[in-house]
Amino acid sequence: MKGTSILLFGVSGSPREGATAYAVKEALRYAKEKFGVRTEYFSVRGKDINFCLHCDYCIREKKGCIQNDDLKPALNTLTQAGAVIFGTPVYQGTLSAQLKTFFDRCRSIVAINPDVLKNKVGAGIAVGGDRAGGQELALQTIHGFFIINKIIPVGGGAFGANLGGTVWSHDKGAKGAEADTEGMKTIHKTVKRLIETTIETRKLRR
Fold it and tell me: In this structure, what are the phi and psi dihedrals at residue 80, rounded to the nearest 5 degrees?
C-alpha cells in the first residue's frame, strides 16, 4: 500500500520541544517510511499565535483571519493536506491552550469555504505525564473538532489504540515518550489506519 500523493500534516500543540513533538515526528516518520506519503510538520513552540477574537471579520469579508501571525501558513498547509494528525500534551485533563487556539482559528478558513476540510482524514495523539492523565478526553476533543469540520476521524482500532495515540512520558520529555513502547505502538496503529482510510476515501476529496 503506497500513498505517495498524500500529504500528511502533523501538528504538535505543545509549547515545549519534548514528548509531544517527539510523538508527532515519530508518527510522520513512520507514515513516510511505511507508506511513502509526503509529510509536513508544524509546532506551536515559539510561534506568535493569537486567540480567536470572535470579531467576525472572517465571516463578513471571506478573506481569512484578520490576524496576521504565525498560524496563517499552517492553516494554508491544512487546507492542502489529505490527512492530518494533531498531537497535544494533556493539560488539566484535556488539550493545550495552543492547540485549542489552532482549532478556534480554523473558523477563518471554514468561513471562506464550509467544505474546505471536508473528507480529509484526521487522527490524534495525546501525551500525558501520567498513564491515565486525560489522554482519552483530549482525543475525544480532537475528534469533536474533526466532526464539526467534516473531517473523517480515525483511531487505531480495538485492542490497544482505540481513540488514537496515547503516550505516557513519565514527565521525562522526548526520552520518556520514546521509552513508552506501548505508546509508540498506539501511534503506529493509528497512523496505519489513518493512511489506509485516506487512501480508501481519496475519491471523496476530488
Answer: -90, -25
**What residues does each domain of the chain span?**
7-200
- In the chain, the amino acid numbered 201 is T
Superfamily covering domain 7-200: Flavodoxin domain (3.40.50.360)
Query: Is the alpha carbon torsion for 72, 74, 75, 77 positive or negative?
Result: positive
Mean pLDDT over all residues of the chain? 96
pLDDT digits over 165-183, tens only?
A: 999 999 999 999 999 999 9
| Burial bucket for residue 113 (CB in 10 Å: 0-12, 13-18, 19+) | exposed
Please name which of 23, 8, 14 lies closest in space to residue 97, comparing C-alpha atoms.
14
List the beta bridge partners of residue 165: 125
The contacts of residue 143 (CB under 8 Å, 6+ apart) are 122, 124, 153, 163, 164
Residue for grid cell 495525546: 126
DSSP 159-194: TTBSSSEEEE-TT-HHHHHHH-HHHHHHHHHHHHHH
